[in-house]
């Protein structure tokens, strides 16, 4: 495993920790001041973001892996694969939110708040994760 792959995995692990910390804090606060139903909806909204990020990371690692990825000469095909991964992420987020709101009948506002708060982790992640630092 090369340096870039190790740095990417470390950055990914740190992002998941930041996201999990943010959503855990919100779930605990929601449980203390409201009820268990809305805290579960917050948790579900946060997990949607974490799952979508992990799926995107998995696709990116498959694409950039020299053993299993695409040939280096096919740059157009590589960009196409990245766009397919982005579309997959959007479809996955829509499907998971639909399952949470329709099938599980979770509180819509709490699911969306959990989703948005966990999305905010990308702002904190840029400060906390640095490529190349040991």
Written account of the structure:
There is one protein chain. This protein has about 130 residues and is mostly helical. The chain has one domain. Helices cover about 80% and strands about 0% of the residues. The chain has 5 helices and no strands. α1 runs antiparallel to α4 and α2 runs antiparallel to α3. The relative contact order is 0.19.
Labels describing this entry:
single chain, 134 residues, mainly alpha, 81% helix
Could you spell the SSE succession in H and E letters? HHHHH
Main sheet summary? none
Radius of gyration: 17 Å
The proportion of strand residues reads under 5%
The chain-level mean pLDDT equals 85
As an assembly, this protein is single chain
Helix and strand content put the structural class at mainly alpha
Distance between the termini: 15 Å
- The domain tally reads 1
Q: How many strand units?
A: 0
Please work out how many helical segments DSSP would assign: 5
Shape: flat
Name the poorly predicted regions.
Answer: none
Helix content: over 70%
Summed up:
With 134 residues, the protein is mostly helical. It has helices spanning 3-33, 36-64, 75-103, 108-119, 121-128.
Layout of helices and strands:
Elements: H1 3-33, H2 36-64, H3 75-103, H4 108-119, H5 121-128
Helix pairs in contact: 1-2, 1-4, 1-5, 2-3, 2-4
């Amino acid at each position: 495993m090369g340096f870039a792959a190790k740095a990417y995995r470390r950055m990914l692990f740190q992002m998941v920790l930041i996201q999990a910390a943010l959503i855990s804090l919100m779930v605990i606060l929601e449980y203390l001041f409201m009820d268990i139903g809305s805290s579960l909806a917050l948790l579900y909204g946060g997990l949607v973001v974490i799952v979508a990020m992990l799926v995107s990371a998995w696709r990116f690692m498959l694409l950039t892996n020299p053993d299993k990825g695409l040939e280096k000469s096919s740059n157009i095909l590589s960009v196409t694969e990245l766009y397919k991964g982005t579309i997959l992420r959007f479809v996955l987020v829509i499907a998971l939110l639909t399952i949470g709101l329709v099938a599980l009948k979770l509180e819509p506002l709490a699911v969306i708040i959990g989703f948005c708060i966990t999305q905010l982790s990308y702002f904190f992640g840029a400060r906390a994760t640095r490529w190349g630092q040991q």
